[in-house]
Design goal:
Helix content: 25-40%
Number of strands: 9
Structural class: alpha/beta
Shape: globular
Strand order of the largest sheet: 6-7-8-3-9
Mean pLDDT: 89
Strand content: 25-35%
Low-confidence stretches: none
Distance between the termini: 25 Å
Radius of gyration: 16 Å
Number of helices: 5
Order of helices and strands: EEEHEEEHHHEHEE
Largest sheet: 5 strands, parallel
């Protein structure tokens, strides 16, 4: 469960999030819809504990979230995420070694589906394939909350369709809260169960 109570985030004099109170209690695939610059990334980073909020509180499964929290129970991947420049297969292995709940079989299956070359180093991948590797690692983490920030950037039309199929399969295998941010609703509409709109 995710609970935000009167959450405000400011950068200097600029208020990006303003007194947001929100509870997400049920597992599901949620879409966070908003224009570029609406604050979607700030919202997700705050829930993940990647940055501290200015005022208010955020809790995930009853634990207060901040940058000091050791294990937030949240898996977050932002667009243009960076990884160690290692072969893709090695990245998946490292992720499984540091997380006992990691679904390595799912990650391997998705790697084959998207024809990812396990021997290829991360920095040698296209933008779309880098994003796909990051997303696979995130979904395979089996954390209770998964946050995906504009995950289809760099995907072609076929990859986007396959991505939404992967998202659905991952949720069916391990129901939890998955929030996907986007500024385009049409493609994800048939996949999501609930919609959150961030306006200004």
């Amino acid at each position: 469960m995710i609970s935000l109570n009167q959450v405000t985030k400011q950068y200097g004099q600029v208020t990006v999030l303003k007194t947001i109170t929100l509870s997400i209690e049920e597992p599901g695939i949620y879409c966070l819809l908003g224009r570029n610059g609406a604050g979607k990334t700030t919202f997700l980073k705050s829930i993940a504990g990647y940055q501290n909020i200015t005022t208010g509180t955020i809790q995930v499964d009853g634990k207060t979230i901040s940058t000091a929290a050791l294990d937030t129970g949240v898996s977050y991947i932002e667009n243009f995420a960076k990884h160690f420049n290692l072969p893709v297969r090695k990245l998946l292995q490292i992720a499984s070694e540091v997380n006992p709940n990691y679904d390595y079989d799912f990650a391997s299956e998705m790697m084959e589906r998207f024809e990812l070359d396990g021997k290829k180093k991360f920095n040698h991948l296209s933008l779309g394939m880098k994003t796909m590797v990051s997303t696979i690692i995130c979904l395979a983490s089996n954390k209770n909350v998964v946050l995906l920030d504009e995950p289809v950037l760099g995907f072609d039309a076929i990859m986007r369709v396959e991505f939404y199929e992967m998202l659905t399969e991952s949720f069916q295998k391990h129901p939890r809260i998955i929030i996907v941010s986007t500024h385009i609703i049409e493609e994800i509409a048939s996949t999501i169960q609930k919609l959150m709109i961030m306006d200004r």
